[in-house]
Amino acid sequence: MYYFAKESFDIKEKPAGTVQYTETLDSRNDSFTRMHREAVKIKPAIEDQFRGIVRQAYDYSCGSAALTTLLNGYVGTQLTEQQIMNGLLKYGETEKIIERRSFSLLDMKRFVGALGLQSEGYRGEFSDLVSQGQPAIVPISYAGFKHFVVFKGYKNGRVYVADPALGNISFDETRFKQIWENNTLYLINVAPEHRKNLLALQDADLRHVDDATVNRYAFVDIQYPQFYMNKIADKASTIRLDKNMNKDSENYGKQEYNYLRLYYKSK
Q: Which PROSITE patterns match (predicted)?
């Protein structure tokens, strides 16, 4: 009994976020013998989704969240969105902010100036945005809304942005040009030796899958021999003991095992 409990339950204290991954020898047979077992530490996907981004607290606060993200990730401040909002209200066009329930690039410029930093809004071509080699706040019109995001970088035909509402996302170049509002970008001038790289592209940013890729692999024809696919299906299935009711079968009336498989149709 002691051996059974010891092998079946792991009662040791584990670090937070740790799960035990176990793969049995044969899923068709009851067995406490394990082929492979290891501790795997996991974390919520949303942590990586919003890595380096200050998530907007209100539906109208994308501007303040984008500015907080840029200041913390590029300038190196440690400000909260609420502090930025208070500063924008104090140094920006307060009455207009309250009236339109949003912040403008002019409000950002005034507040950043109060912090002792130089900044400016520009209009340019897509090549100008890319050639700057630094993050910038850009206005976009997306899903029917005016929105501020932080441009992080461009690579292999894709534009990577820090979105205060959606997290780290990317658009193909053509789509980004369609939603980029008035080719406007907002830059904060920081001496090279004082710049932070918290908004630099990382490997995690480059792992994107578009609809075309999903469809191509989801509906691909079977490329393996049928007997091999049957073997895999048998191993992954459950077994039920049934009476053979096929009168043309040599085993008619006898008990035999049937493999129960699950099939998923694409249409």
A: PEPTIDASE_C39 (PS50990)
* pLDDT, average across residues 63-83: 96
User: pLDDT at residue 71 above 80?
Assistant: yes
The pair of structure tokens assigned to 63 is 């501007």
Whether residue 181 sits in one domain with residue 246: no
Please check whether residue 8 lies inside any domain of the structure.
no
In the chain, the number of structural domains is: 2
More confident residue, 211 or 130: 130
Which long-range contacts (C-beta less than 8 Å, at least 24 apart) are formed by 14-20? 14/39, 15/41, 17/41, 17/42, 17/43, 18/42
Q: 129: domain range? A: 46-209+218-224
Same domain, 238 and 145: no
Active-site hit among 62, 137, 140, 159: 62
Cα(67)–Cα(84) distance, rounded to whole angstroms? 8
Instruction: Give the pLDDT confidence of 32-41 residue by residue, as tens digits.
Output: 555 566 677 7
Domain CATH for 141: 3.90.70.10
Containing 6, the helix (H) or strand (E) segment is helix 2-8
Is the pLDDT confidence value at 191 over 60? yes
Cα separation of 169 and 238, whole Å? 40
Block residue for tokens 């369609």: 178
For residue 41, being part of any structural domain is answered with no
pLDDT, mean of residues 73-97 = 94
Please choose, from the candidates 235, 254, 257, the residue with its C-alpha nearest in 3D space to the C-alpha of residue 245. Answer: 254
Q: Which two tokens stand for residue 111?
A: 């507040």
Q: Are residues 245 and 132 in the same domain?
A: no
What's the rounded Cα separation, in Å, for the pair 152 and 160? 6
Instruction: Evaluate whether residue 10 is within a structural domain.
Output: no
Query: For position 265, what pLDDT does the model report?
Result: 43
44 flagged as catalytic: no
